[in-house]
Amino acid sequence: MDFIFQTWPWYVSGFLIGMVMLNLIYFGKTFGMSTNLRSLCSMSGLGKKIGFFNFDWKAQRWNLLVVLGAMFGGFVAVHFMGDASNVVINAKTIVQLKQLGIDAPNGKLLPDALFGNAIFQSPKKILILIIGGVLIGFGSRYAGGCTSGHAIYGLSSFQLPSLKAVIGFFIGGLIMTHFIFPLIF
Amino acid sequence: MKALKYILVGIVFGIVLTKSEAVSWYRIYEMFEFQSFHMYGIIMVAIATGVVGIQIIKRKNIKDIKGLPIEIIDKEPGSTRYWVGGIFFGLGWALVGSCPGPIFILIGAGFLPMILVLFGALFGTFLYGLFKDKLPH
Which residues of A touch B78 (CB under 8 A)? Predict the structure, then answer.
């Protein structure tokens, strides 16, 4: 039973993520997490003012239930299935992070430097998280999907637009970690 | 029961993404530094599983849970929106180390600063809706 508390290997995790998607397809649905952001915008009444949000978000309620379950799953996994041995990243990565002023994982999923509760006292860190979110929200809607909708669902069904989007994801990610990180951290 | 199956799939999704550490900022950074195979392995096996599953569905004409034919909806053809939107998304993905799924998962797990990311993501979605007609697609 020990494996439950360890980092799950990539081949097990990847297979299970694929099965989650196939399950949703079997339920007659699709796999796409960023659509929920649009639904949440619509639920807040934006549909009256902006045409893009004037859609039948109730037809997407199932997806919000998936997210609700995922939140609970995250809670269970972090609080009852974790271990101090988790998040063993490359030693080189840790050295590089230290140079950027970011703490090593030591079993944590997220660095305190960016996600510790102390960041609420740092306007810069608050801004970083909000800007990151804006880029994710804007980018995923502009590209018509995120990692789940394009990288997993789109590529598994051989969609050329998804390949373009995923290459775009990586170009953006490489620019951020290699060129922008040294400027902001 | 109808609702429960979606919640159950969601719970599995949340647990797998957490236990695989795909929700970890560190794993995303490590991936973009090409210092680990872990994330690439996860993404590739997920796609491979999807490819096999979708091919089986198509070739055997498997019906969905209600007995209706399964349709895989094609993405709209195009280029600009996928390249440009993709790059915007990638910048954000690397900066905060999470994509939309993990944002929710991590909030559920109790990482409160993630709420800032969620607010940002909702605002970003709103901005797209606002400027949609002015953007090249």
Answer: 161
